[in-house]
Amino acid sequence: MPKMKTKKIVTKRFKVTKRGKLLHRTQGMRHIRRNKSKSRQRRQDRGKQVTTRKYQRIIKQFLAI
Question: Hey, is 15 helix, strand or coil?
């Protein structure tokens, strides 16, 4: 059976930590940043964790992990 290929768009949107957690970028941080408070911007600049087991399983399949 051949190896699974990685979905390239998924590698750009998600990051896997050392412990296997999945992180993604927060929505709404591309433009119009001046209307958002500095604390909100700092909070949203960090990656958010994918918490739903269903989505974790699907994303890890796409990443061929």
Answer: strand
Q: What is the pTM of this model?
A: 0.75
Residue 15: C-alpha distances to residues 11, 19, 48, 49 (Å): 7, 11, 10, 10
Q: What is the mean pLDDT of each run of 10 residues along the chain (65 residues)?
A: 87 93 91 93 91 94 88
CATH topology (fold) of 8-62: Factor Xa Inhibitor (4.10.410)
CB 14 within 8 A of CB 63: yes
Strand boundaries in 1-65, DSSP class E: 14-16, 22-24, 48-49
